[in-house]
Design brief:
The chain is about 70% helix and about 0% strand. α2 packs across α8, α3 packs across α10 and α8 packs antiparallel against α9. It is built from twelve helices and no strands.
């Protein structure tokens, strides 16, 4: 939960697979799901507290405040809803339907009451955690006795969880929009505590304009060497994309070995495992070649952006003077 790229849905699914596989040795599927869901809920609430703390500490920095747009009307509407007393539908929908990391970190930046935040998050157990944990547990359940029934349960849980999450997001959007319509003028007013954010926004606007200018293909700053670097990065990335597409265009994969979410890493390659080595998922030579080309593309792109950022910063500074 503390890793920004990891969605909560993936954690709940793996909780069902890992914990469910072990729990099914001594209990039925429903109890196993309950155990996995309990672990998932504890992880969710603990992660929310950790993310809240990060937001509380980093929220003092103007750059972080600008990143979430504390001076924008939508974010101020979000703040107004989250800081409202009680547990209104809009507040709960935001806490449940919002993505894990941005929502909890934003609560910390906005200094929302932690007890209110955690309590308002509890409905996520029914909306998202339990259905997705059950789906994970069903992936490791022996369904030989009634496969049709369990496939139907899995499909229903997957669809239900998706619809519930989408509904929560739509309700949250409705209340944010309603708040903007009712209090938009007051929310748009300048606030003294956001003075540093306003100054940073103006500074970055000058830099953004300068960067767009120096990276104009027809301007003198785009020398042949710099053009060649970015063209090389783009060409290499296209090659990687076409190479990876081979896995979907041929019967047998040529880049990455097929590996299911329920497969055993220690199982032999002939049985769908990786023979105890995760690197075996990359096939030689095409897979490793694709990774190498991708690395070169990233290096070329990074070299270009670093150099042009330096040129843009110098141009922005000269324009200010």
């Amino acid at each position: 939960f503390m890793l920004p790229p990891v969605p909560g849905s993936a954690v709940y699914l793996f909780a069902g697979i890992v914990i469910g596989r072990k729990a099914l040795e001594s209990m039925n599927i429903w109890l196993a799901t309950l155990v996995g869901s309990g672990v998932g809920l504890v992880g969710k609430l603990s992660g929310s507290l950790g993310q809240y703390g990060i937001g509380l500490l980093l929220g003092r920095r103007a750059r972080v405040q600008k990143m979430i747009g504390v001076d924008s009307v939508p974010t101020r509407a979000l703040e107004q809803i989250l800081k409202s007393p009680g547990f209104g539908l809009g507040k709960v929908a935001i806490l449940v339907g919002g993505p894990d990391w941005p929502t909890s970190v934003t609560c910390g930046i906005l200094k929302m009451n932690t007890v209110m935040m955690l309590t308002g998050t509890l409905p996520v157990a029914v909306v998202s955690i339990m259905p997705q944990t059950l789906v994970g547990a069903l992936l490791v359940l022996d369904q030989s006795e009634d496969p049709v029934f369990w496939n139907a349960v899995r499909s229903a849980c997957t669809g239900g969880a998706g619809l519930a999450q989408a509904a929560a997001s739509m309700v949250a959007l409705y209340y944010i929009t309603k708040t903007i319509e009712e209090d938009g003028e007051a929310l748009a007013m300048f606030r003294e505590e956001h003075q540093q954010v306003a100054e940073l926004t103006a500074k970055e606007a000058r830099y953004t304009q300068a960067y767009a200018c120096v990276t104009d293909w027809h301007k003198p700053d785009m020398t042949p060497r710099r053009k060649g670097t970015i063209v090389l990065a783009a060409a290499l990335m296209i090659v990687v994309g076409l190479t990876l597409a081979l896995d979907f265009g041929f019967g047998e994969p040529v880049c990455f070995r097929s590996f299911e979410i329920t497969s055993d890493i220690d199982a032999p390659l002939s049985e769908g495992g990786l023979d105890g080595n995760v690197l075996n998922i990359v096939l030689f030579p095409v897979g490793w070649a694709a990774l190498g080309i991708f690395t070169l593309a990233i290096i070329a792109f990074k070299l270009f952006t670093m150099e042009m950022s330096r040129v843009a910063a110098q141009s922005s500074l000269m324009a200010k003077e």
